Structure formats: structure tokens, C-alpha cells
Amino acid sequence: MLKIENAVERIREILDDENLSQLREVLDDYHSADLADIFSNLKEEERLLCFKNIEEDKAAEMIEYLSPQLQVELLGDIDEETASRIISKLPHDSAADVLGDMEDNESETYLDKLPHKFSEEVRELLTYNEDTAGGIMTPVIMTVNDDMTVKEVLSSIRVQAQEDNMELYYIYVVDKQHHLLGVVSLRKLLTSPINEVIENIMITDIVKLHVDDYQDYIADVFMKYQYNALPVVDLYNRLKGIVTWDDVQDIVEEETTEEIYTSSAISTGNVDEDEILSGSITKAVQARTPWLFITLIGEFVAVHVGHKFEPTLQMLPVIAIFVPLLAGLGGNIGTQSITLMVRGLSTGELTLNSAAKHIMREMSIGLVIGSIFGGLVSLVTWGWRNNIYLGLVVGISMMINMTIATVIGTFAPFALKKFKIDPAVASGPVIATIIDVLGLAVYFTLVTIFLVKLT
Amino acid sequence: MLKIENAVERIREILDDENLSQLREVLDDYHSADLADIFSNLKEEERLLCFKNIEEDKAAEMIEYLSPQLQVELLGDIDEETASRIISKLPHDSAADVLGDMEDNESETYLDKLPHKFSEEVRELLTYNEDTAGGIMTPVIMTVNDDMTVKEVLSSIRVQAQEDNMELYYIYVVDKQHHLLGVVSLRKLLTSPINEVIENIMITDIVKLHVDDYQDYIADVFMKYQYNALPVVDLYNRLKGIVTWDDVQDIVEEETTEEIYTSSAISTGNVDEDEILSGSITKAVQARTPWLFITLIGEFVAVHVGHKFEPTLQMLPVIAIFVPLLAGLGGNIGTQSITLMVRGLSTGELTLNSAAKHIMREMSIGLVIGSIFGGLVSLVTWGWRNNIYLGLVVGISMMINMTIATVIGTFAPFALKKFKIDPAVASGPVIATIIDVLGLAVYFTLVTIFLVKLT
Fold first, then answer.
1. A123 and A148 assigned to the same domain
2. pLDDT value at position A163?
3. Is residue B132 a part of any domain in this protein?
4. In this predicted model, what pLDDT tens digit does every residue of A385-402 receive, in sequence order?
5. Are strands B143-144 and A239-244 parallel, antiparallel or unpaired?
6. Which of the two ends of chain B, N or C, has the fewest CB atoms closer than 10 A to its terminal CB?
7. Closest-CA residue in chain A for B30?
8. pLDDT digits (tens, 9 = 90+) for B79-137
9. Beta partners for A239?
């Protein structure tokens, strides 16, 4: 792959020389995906100057690879005529995405300037929720009737596919009312006898999407069946468009980001992922405080537990200094268990059926690791404070804490899944705080029991 | 999508009735991806009985969707002749994957029974590292010469693609020595004049992979350029195979799992991901202890900091009970910052250039949230212990801790990336412990300064 830093430097040098013909030549040489990366790394005014110096076809190709913010920025900075021409060269779904990210009056201006048919088709896409199959799909697809022959289909492709900027993965077979009847792969088409009727070679057991299907469902279907493209139908099984694997790639990345954010106690419910990372501080605070607030309440419970044992602390303040050690390791091994279960449930490697098995397995792992670490801590503490009982109390607490942490960390994601709550929520503060509080209670109880030996 | 639980139940009922002809019929009706899911949920003996009752073509299709363990299990449980026939129906890359997961002597037995040409091609795939393009690619591809016409290519497809179970995405143009010259998409082929020479319609600016490219690089290339399939060449630019997007989908899932595991302090270096989740306990302990051990050392530093302030603790044991509260919230907000930066760097939304901007932004967020939470904690503590100074010390510590946590949590991933270390490592215990230790030091220092007012 291209070294983007070097390319950016090269472009900057040419910009400094104000050599526009060289600029045009160099920009034209890059792949549009590389160009998009280069543009993201340029300053706004550099970017605009470069954008004005690439030809419109290339500009349209590149626009598809850019982030929504940059798409809107660049198109807004050039004259409306050129911008409309570039938008009209985009595939329908990308055009709808770009226009959907603009202010309403701005997108209306462009829609009015676009070729009528294209503009109508894009307008229809804009009526769907952008997180559903309707909002994601490309409406222009290659359709044929079931009584056509292979030969007729091949000449039909020649006409239809040339006309629009049409993606060609499968050929969809529809009746006169555009109801979806079957699918033929290009491979099948190209290897069948030229006079074969389509009806005889089409597949009728079709995996399909509905216009209202949500993107997480769409991603699951693609991941499971591994097709390049899937047809999208409406309530009456009329073919409306196709969703292709590259649309799904973006969804999968977005879903993964959401899963990771949720696991780290960042709420994605009301704030868009992009805004959490680089939007206003208010938005970021909004996404980050809800779970922190729950942690706060949970930790007040921990404070309360500590308070209960204040007499013990009064008599033996040294025990306080082991609290971070116990909490840190309990939290860490618990997080490991939660992460393993959440990810396993998310990829489908784990099912609810295997909950009991995994709780037992993680408990064993907690016991083994807890014993090793507990033993180590016992020895170090004993050596340091010259009190074998203190060593034992800290070490045994460590072992119990780590075991409890693995069990809770394994149980919680399965329980949430069972009640149809996103298991990733388990990685959040609630479970961590429960592990914290229980660990603290175990430790202080042991300390109180053996207090005589410890002082 | 199919409700797998219901399907499994239905199959079990038929198995109980011992109605094999109905079993065959029902199994045949499922999509092979669904069958694979059903098989994963059956018990071993049920699975085997079902496997013996699906026809071989369907068995081959389903095998591709199964996990490696189940592939080896099922093929090992049926007679060698049938197993070889099923393997010979797999695409080359899947056959190589299945055979690569078996014991050497076992896979040799099958390789000897496979058709000679297929067996040779699969043997060649097995010589590549399974994590490189060579190990992932399909070697059978549609190739043509640059002096052929569209018409000749179309008839060549008819012969070549029918012969092998060949995937058809692009047509690759090679010279007599099989050097890669260009690529033609099926769309271009089908919309070009029938007598056009391939040389004139092929793309020569080809994004391609090298047989030795590693899978993370391959995933990056696919994610960036968004092609369906990419050609794989050797050192001399001879075309060896293609990698398709569904292979990459598996890689992306694996890479994401690795990223998530690393973020949760689970080492994927020496232990396979699958084994961490469901292998032997020894393997799991091996993957989970390294970072825990580093936490242990880090937390001993925290114990040492606590020890330094033992005189303070002695005079005012109550301050110990606020430690989990401060550590919990500092850790949480720090994790949020780390997660945001690690994910942003991983998806390419963030670059090293934006480090300073993001450190400032996160610091502001830390200050805002820290002030809110610090204020709350001050009030609650003041009300509870009836000591405004204690309230202020705990609250101000909270604010400082949370701000420090966001700054370190933002700085660390960028710094690691700068030194070419996986930023996900930052989510691990080292940074968490640094945040812990610093937070503790700030708190105890403030307590010591205001000790007179607090007692």
C-alpha cells in the first residue's frame, strides 16, 4: 500500500511550487482510495485546491471513500454546478448518503439540479431510515424476466449495465410487476447453453432482505450466508434494490465500534459514534457520563462497605494499603472473563447452551490463577510485614476475589443475553463494581475474623 | 433468518422417530449455512447421523461454514472414501484449510485419495504459511491472454469455469509465462463490443497481493480499496491465485477478536484465540497470566505508595474507605479515553497528527466530568461526615484523578503507535496501574497537606 505521509509531502511540495499541471498529473496517478486518504491528511485550503484539480470522474470515485464530514465540506466549497455533476456520477446509495448528510435546503438545491430520473431515485432512497436496508441499498439493478434466454439476457446486460453505473453481481429475475422470482449468478449465466431459458437455471430459494430490516440484522445475514450482494424487497416481494458486501463492511465496522464502546462504558444510544470521538465536548460528556454515574453509585456502596469495617481499619490501618492490589487484580481477571464471553457470544462461537460449562471452566481458571497469585502475594506480604497471618489473609482474599471475579464475569454476559440485553453492557461498571464490592467484603471479613492474629 | 433452536428441536424429534427418509428431506431443505449452525448445536452422535444423511454436494457446501474442529470431527467419523469425495468437492482454499487442521498422517491419507490435479494444487497451498495470502488464496482462477477478443474470452469462460468449481469475479489477463498483465471486470466484459481485444479494455493499474503478505495487511488492503477479490502474485509477478472478500471477512473477525483480547489484557501471542476460549485450562492460564503478572507488580507499587502514607492512615483511617471510589472512577474514565483512541487508530479515523488535538480535547472532557463528579462527591462526603474539608479533599482528588486519567489514557495509545507498538496494549494493566498509582499519590498528598483540618 501507498505510504500516505510521503504522498502528502509530495503534494505539498508541488503546491508550494504552484505547478498546477504537475499537480493534476500527480493526483490523477493515485488510486481514488489513496487520494481519499491523502485528502484526509491535507489542510482545508490545500484540500480544496487539489479537489479543483482532479477530473470529475475521479472526484466522484474519491468522494465515495471520504468521511461524511469531508464529503459535505468539499462539495460545499466548490460551485454548485460542478458539485451536482459530481454527485450525479455517484452510485445512487452514495449520492443519497452524501445528500442525507447535508442540511435540507442545501440537498434540495442539488436534487433540483440532478438529472430527473436519478434525482427521483435518490429522493426515494432518502425516504428510508438510513440504518435500514432501504436506506443502504442501491436501487439500480439488473433485472430480467424468467422467459428470456441466456442469449437475450446477455444482450440485455449490454444495454442496461452500460446505461447506468450499475453494479453487476447477480442477475435478478422478476415478473412484469417486478416481484422477485429468482436469482442467477453471472457464473451460471456465462456457463449455461446460450438458448437455455432463465427460468431453468435460476435459483428460487433466495436469501433476501426487507426494506425495513435494520443494519445489525443485515450484517448478521451477510456474515452467515457470505454472499456478495443480497436483493431487497418490499412487503409485496417487489424487488427494490440490492445491498452489496462493501456497504456491509462499513456496517460491520460501525457495529464493532459500538460493541467496543459499550464494553468500555461509553453509551452509543443517543450520540453518534463519530461525535463521541470528535464532536462537541457536550456530546462527548453526554455519551460518557451515564455509566460513570452508575459507577459512582456503585462505588458509594463500596465506600459504605468500607465504612462498616471502620472499627477494624481503626485498629489496623495497614490493611487499607492492600485494597488497590486486591481490587486491581480482581477487576482485571474479571474483565478478561467478561471480554471472552461477550466476544464469543457476539461472533456466535458461544451459545446460551454452553453457559454452565463455561462458568465451571472459568471458575477453575480463576482458582488456578488465584492460587498462584494468592501464594505469591502471601509470601511477599509475609516477608515484608513479618506476619504470616497477614500474608495468609491477603493471599487467601486474593484467591477468593479472583475466583469470584471469573465466575461473575462469566455468568453476567450469559444472564444478560438470556434476558435479551446486549451482553457487552456487562463489561461496563455495574459488574466491575459488584466484583469490587464483593472482593472488599471478603477481604474485610477475613481481616475482622483474624484480627487478633494480625495486630 | 432461521430460528436455529426450533430447527434443532425439529431435527431431534425426527431423530427420535428414527424416520430417516424424513430426516433426509428436512435436512436437504435447509440452506447450507443454516445446516452448519444446526450441526453446531447438535450432540456429537446426532451430528454424525445427520451428516450421513445429507447428500455429498450439500455436505461439501456445509463443511465450508463449519468451525475447524467440527470439520475435522465429522470427516474423521465417516469412512475415508466418502470423506475424500466430499473434500474433493470443496474449493481449493477450503480443502487446504480442512486438511491443514488435521494430523499430518491423516491429511496424507486423504491427499492420496484425491484426484491427482486437485491434490497437487492443494499440496501447493499447504506449503504456504496459513496466515499469508498464499495460504488464504484460491489457486484456480479464470485467466485469458491479452490478444484475445471479448468473444473468445466468453467462450473460454464457458469451458474453464464449468470445469472447475471456479469463483468468477474478475477475469485476469496474463502472458504466456503467467505474468499478471491486467484485470477485466465481468461488467466491462459484458458491456464491451464482442470483437474488442482484451488488451484495450483491461485495467493495468492493478491492486494486488503478494503470496507472502500477512493477513492483517490483506485485511487493510481490502478495507481500503473495497474490491471483491484481489489477485495474488509471486516475486516474479506470476499470478498464483485470488483472495476473495469472504476469506477477508474471517480475517477481519479474527483481527477484531485479537484487538479486543489485547485490550482486555489477554495475550494472543502464543496461544490460539479458540484455545483461550475453549481449549485446555493450561493454555488459558498461559494466555491470561502475563498481563495479570504485570498488574501484580504495578499494584505492589500502589501498595508501596500507600505504605509511604501509613502515618497519615494511622491518624485518619477513614480516608482509606474512599480509595475504591477514586480508583474506580479514574480507571473508568481512563478506559473510555483509551478505548476511543485505540479504536480510532485502528479504523484509521485518527492519525498520529491529531494526537495533540485529542489530548487537549480529552483533558477538557476530563475536567468537565471531573468537576461534576468531584462536586457531587464533595457534597455527599461533606453531608455524611459533616466535615467540609474532607469533602473538598475527596472531591478535588476526584477531579484531578479523572483529568489525569483522560490525559494518560489519550497520550498512551498515540505514544505506543508512534513507537510501532500495538496501541491496544495501552488498555492493558500498565496504563491502568499508572493511573491508579498517580491517583493514589494525589489523594494521599492532599490528605497529608490538609491533615490538621481533617481530624
1. no
2. 63
3. no
4. 888 999 999 999 999 999
5. unpaired
6. C
7. A205
8. 888 999 999 988 888 899 889 888 888 888 888 888 898 899 889 889 998 889 999 99
9. A233
State the cell numbers at A75.
Answer: 462539495
- Tell whether A154 and A110 lie within a shared domain: no
CB A169 within 8 A of CB A148: no
Per-residue pLDDT reduced to its tens digit, B229-245: 999 999 999 999 999 88
User: Is residue B240 one of the residues assigned to a domain?
Assistant: yes
- Helical packing angle, A68-77 and A44-51, nearest 10°: 70
A182 is a domain residue: yes
Domain that holds residue B109: 4-127
CB contact under 8 A, A353 and B41: yes
CB B227 within 8 A of CB B201: no
- Whether A374 is covered by a domain: the verdict is yes
Please give the Cα distance from A16 to A9 (Å, whole number): 11
Packing angle between helix A4-17 and helix A20-29, nearest 10 degrees?
Answer: 160
Instruction: Determine, for residues A322 and B333 on separate chains, whether the beta-carbon distance falls below 8 Å.
Output: no
Asked which of B127, B152, B187 is the last residue of a domain, the reply is: B127
Share of chain B above pLDDT 70, in %: 98
Contact state of B299 with A328 under an 8 Å Cβ cutoff: yes
SS (H, E, C) A193-224: CCCCEHHHHCECCCCCEECCCEHHHHHHHHHH
Do A294 and A379 lie in one domain? The reply is yes
A191 is written with which cell numbers? Answer: 456457463
| Cα A83 to Cα A74: distance, rounded to the nearest angstrom | 9
- Locate the DSSP E strands across A186-329: 209-210, 229-233, 239-244
Alpha carbon of A145: minimum distance to chain B alpha carbons (Å)? 18
Domains identified in chain A, total number: 3
Cα distance between residue B253 and residue A220, in whole Å: 12
Distance of CA B423 to the CA centre of its chain: 15
| Nearest-by-Cβ selection for A292 from B318, B333, B339 | B333
Q: How confident is the model at residue A105 (pLDDT cuts 50, 70, 90)?
A: confident
A321/B314 touch (CB, cutoff 8 Å), yes or no: no
Nearest CB among A276, A317, A333 relative to B314 is that of: A317
Q: What are residue A275's phi and psi, to 5 degrees?
A: -70, -30
Same-domain check for residues A278 and A387:
yes
The beta-carbon neighbor of A292 closest among B161, B295, B329 is B329
Asked if B146 and B165 count as a contact pair (C-beta separation under 8 A), the reply is no
CA distance B23 to B4: 16
Residue B62, classed as helix, strand or coil, is: helix
C-alpha cell at B5: 433452536
Euclidean distance between CA atoms B402 and B397, whole angstroms: 8
